[in-house]
């Protein structure tokens, strides 16, 4: 995996509450997922799949500019389906984004516990995929955590 991917993963993991070093994990970026798991390039997959030696398995989709929550959710769902077919599990799912699009901010909210919620008329509900709550993190939170970590 490239140094750039390794840095991004190390930046993201402390935010989701994992103090385990990336080096203690078997990590796949999207290119690795295709190659190492023999998956067709036509499949739309999430950006990262991380499997810790402690058996925590994480899927992370990194939102690019103008990528919708629905598109990111689809990529996570598809990755989970394929990993399940390959006999691999998932314990935690997350989206990392710059800023929600106007459409997304009308339909979704990110709660203080970093879970993504779908706004419905009169009520809201957490977004879940196969029984796992979908977590959301702004890139600015990750950058702030990186600065705080470097100051310690």
The percentage helix is 25-40%
Structural class: alpha+beta
Give the rounded overall mean pLDDT.
77
How do the helices and strands follow one another from N- to C-terminus? HEHEEHEHEEEEEH
Number of domains: 1
Instruction: Tell me the fraction of residues in β-strands, as a range.
Output: 25-35%
Q: How many individual β-strands? A: 9
What characterizes the major β-sheet?
6 strands, mixed
Distance between the termini: 27 Å
What would you call the shape?
globular
Poorly predicted tracts of residues: none
Radius of gyration: 15 Å
Order of strands side by side in the largest beta sheet? 1-2-3-4-9-8
Work out the helix count.
5
Keywords:
152 residues, six-stranded mixed β-sheet, globular
Overall description:
- The structure is a single chain.
- The protein contains five helices and nine strands, in the order αβαββαβαβββββα.
- The protein is 35% helix and 28% strand.
- The chain is globular.
- It has one domain.
- It starts with a helix and ends with a helix.
- The chain has a six-stranded mixed sheet with strand order 1-2-3-4-9-8, sandwiched between helices. It has a three-stranded antiparallel sheet with strand order 5-6-7.
- The protein has 152 residues and is an alpha+beta fold.
């Amino acid at each position: 995996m490239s140094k750039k991917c390794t840095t991004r993963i190390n930046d993201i993991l402390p935010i989701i509450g994992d103090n385990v070093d990336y080096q203690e994990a078997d990590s796949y970026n999207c290119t690795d997922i295709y190659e190492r798991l023999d998956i067709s390039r036509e499949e739309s997959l999430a950006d990262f799949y991380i499997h810790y030696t402690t058996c925590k398995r994480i899927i992370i989709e990194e939102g690019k500019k103008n990528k919708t929550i629905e598109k990111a959710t689809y990529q996570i769902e598809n990755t989970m389906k394929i990993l399940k077919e390959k006999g691999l599990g998932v314990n935690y799912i997350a989206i990392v984004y710059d800023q929600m699009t106007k459409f997304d901010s009308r339909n979704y909210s990110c709660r203080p516990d970093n879970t993504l919620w779908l706004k419905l008329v009169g009520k809201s509900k957490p977004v879940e995929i196969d029984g796992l709550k979908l977590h959301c993190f702004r890139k600015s939170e990750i950058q702030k955590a990186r600065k705080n970590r470097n100051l310690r």
